[in-house]
């Protein structure tokens, strides 16, 4: 495990358990055996993150004397990974290499984008150690971005594909999440109906096919093909950040029809099981 006895950062992850971006961060922290506490955020009131002007999850608070807030799942992963490899810089300094930039989407909405979020901030020697050849780094960055920009968008349309699936998904969300009793009931029925329609809109926005399963299967097989037959993981004998991202995203469908269908209709199973095993082996459960 990468963690030596000097690991002094106290980590607190603010999350919704069923959110793919949060799951990605957990997969990363678990694989590296980093201890962290979880604060489950109520998705309706969100009072657990009142302290933050950034209103999305995941948020990671890292405390090494003074608390430092990290936003955006890919920034969290890149910054903590950089910190694990390079003990030259304080985490604060590392985080400053990922400045938030306001941009406007095609829909005219103002959003925060983070510069360099798929880069690890390493010196030449460290880079050589982690990425012996340049292609390895390029490949990892490409597929991390793919997980965020494409794979994630296939989850909702697939788990809310039919009214029945939408209800099952919300049942799972309410069971795993933090809701009051009435709020949970309300969220389940109203949420399931709403998400069924939202997923239709997402389907249009991302130009998905009539049967969104086809897009999911194709994406997943594209990933398996990229890993190839000659390596256990994209990272070789151990998962790299792309492996952890893809696994983290797909894992949120576990227990749902979409997940079972994916296991049957694609070639993902062997890789997925290897990921599960390696994370259980290294991970320290807290």
UniProtKB/TrEMBL annotation:
<keyword id="KW-0643">Prostaglandin biosynthesis</keyword>
<dbReference type="GO" id="GO:0050220">
    <property type="term" value="F:prostaglandin-E synthase activity"/>
</dbReference>
<keyword id="KW-0472">Membrane</keyword>
<dbReference type="InterPro" id="IPR004045">
    <property type="entry name" value="Glutathione_S-Trfase_N"/>
</dbReference>
<dbReference type="GO" id="GO:0046903">
    <property type="term" value="P:secretion"/>
</dbReference>
<dbReference type="GO" id="GO:0019371">
    <property type="term" value="P:cyclooxygenase pathway"/>
</dbReference>
<comment type="pathway">
    <text>Lipid metabolism; prostaglandin biosynthesis.</text>
</comment>
<keyword id="KW-0276">Fatty acid metabolism</keyword>
<keyword id="KW-1133">Transmembrane helix</keyword>
<dbReference type="InterPro" id="IPR034334">
    <property type="entry name" value="PGES2"/>
</dbReference>
<dbReference type="InterPro" id="IPR034335">
    <property type="entry name" value="PGES2_C"/>
</dbReference>
<dbReference type="GO" id="GO:0045893">
    <property type="term" value="P:positive regulation of DNA-templated transcription"/>
</dbReference>
<keyword id="KW-0644">Prostaglandin metabolism</keyword>
<keyword id="KW-0443">Lipid metabolism</keyword>
<dbReference type="GO" id="GO:0005634">
    <property type="term" value="C:nucleus"/>
</dbReference>
<dbReference type="InterPro" id="IPR011767">
    <property type="entry name" value="GLR_AS"/>
</dbReference>
<dbReference type="GO" id="GO:0005829">
    <property type="term" value="C:cytosol"/>
</dbReference>
<keyword id="KW-0812">Transmembrane</keyword>
<protein>
    <recommendedName>
        <fullName>Prostaglandin E synthase 2</fullName>
        <ecNumber>5.3.99.3</ecNumber>
    </recommendedName>
</protein>
<feature type="domain" description="GST C-terminal">
    <location>
        <begin position="172"/>
        <end position="286"/>
    </location>
</feature>
<dbReference type="GO" id="GO:0016829">
    <property type="term" value="F:lyase activity"/>
</dbReference>
<dbReference type="InterPro" id="IPR036249">
    <property type="entry name" value="Thioredoxin-like_sf"/>
</dbReference>
<dbReference type="GO" id="GO:0000139">
    <property type="term" value="C:Golgi membrane"/>
</dbReference>
<dbReference type="GO" id="GO:0005739">
    <property type="term" value="C:mitochondrion"/>
</dbReference>
<dbReference type="InterPro" id="IPR040079">
    <property type="entry name" value="Glutathione_S-Trfase"/>
</dbReference>
<dbReference type="InterPro" id="IPR036282">
    <property type="entry name" value="Glutathione-S-Trfase_C_sf"/>
</dbReference>
<keyword id="KW-0444">Lipid biosynthesis</keyword>
<keyword id="KW-0275">Fatty acid biosynthesis</keyword>
<dbReference type="Pfam" id="PF13410">
    <property type="entry name" value="GST_C_2"/>
</dbReference>
<comment type="similarity">
    <text>Belongs to the GST superfamily.</text>
</comment>
<dbReference type="Pfam" id="PF13417">
    <property type="entry name" value="GST_N_3"/>
</dbReference>
<dbReference type="GO" id="GO:0003677">
    <property type="term" value="F:DNA binding"/>
</dbReference>
<keyword id="KW-0413">Isomerase</keyword>
<dbReference type="InterPro" id="IPR010987">
    <property type="entry name" value="Glutathione-S-Trfase_C-like"/>
</dbReference>
């Amino acid at each position: 495990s990468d963690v030596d006895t000097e690991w002094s950062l106290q980590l607190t992850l603010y999350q919704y358990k069923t959110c793919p971006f949060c799951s990605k961060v957990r997969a990363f922290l678990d694989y590296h055996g980093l201890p962290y506490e979880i604060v489950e955020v109520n998705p309706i009131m969100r009072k657990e993150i009142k302290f933050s002007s950034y209103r999305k999850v995941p948020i990671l608070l890292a405390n090494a004397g003074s608390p430092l807030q990290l936003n955006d799942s890919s920034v969290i992963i890149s910054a903590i990974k950089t910190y694990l490899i390079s003990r030259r810089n304080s985490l604060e300094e590392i985080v400053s290499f990922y400045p938030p930039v306001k941009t406007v989407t095609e829909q005219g909405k103002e959003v925060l984008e983070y510069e360099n979020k798929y880069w690890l901030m390493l010196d030449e020697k460290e880079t050589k150690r982690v990425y012996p050849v340049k292609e390895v780094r390029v490949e990892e960055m490409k597929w991390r971005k793919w997980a965020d920009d494409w794979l994630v968008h296939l989850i909702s349309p697939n788990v809310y594909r039919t009214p029945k699936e939408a209800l099952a998904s919300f049942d799972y969300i309410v069971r795993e999440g933090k809701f009051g009793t009435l709020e949970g009931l309300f969220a389940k029925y109203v949420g399931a109906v709403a998400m069924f329609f939202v997923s239709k809109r997402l389907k249009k926005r991302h130009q998905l096919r009539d049967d969104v399963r086809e897009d999911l299967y194709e994406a997943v097989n594209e990933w398996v093909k990229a890993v190839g037959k000659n390596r256990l993981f994209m990272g070789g004998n151990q998962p790299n950040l792309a492996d952890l991202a893809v696994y983290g995203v797909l894992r949120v469908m576990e227990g749902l029809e979409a997940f079972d269908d994916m296991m049957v209709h694609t070639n993902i199973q062997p890789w997925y099981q290897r990921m599960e095993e390696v994370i259980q082996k290294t991970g320290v459960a807290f």
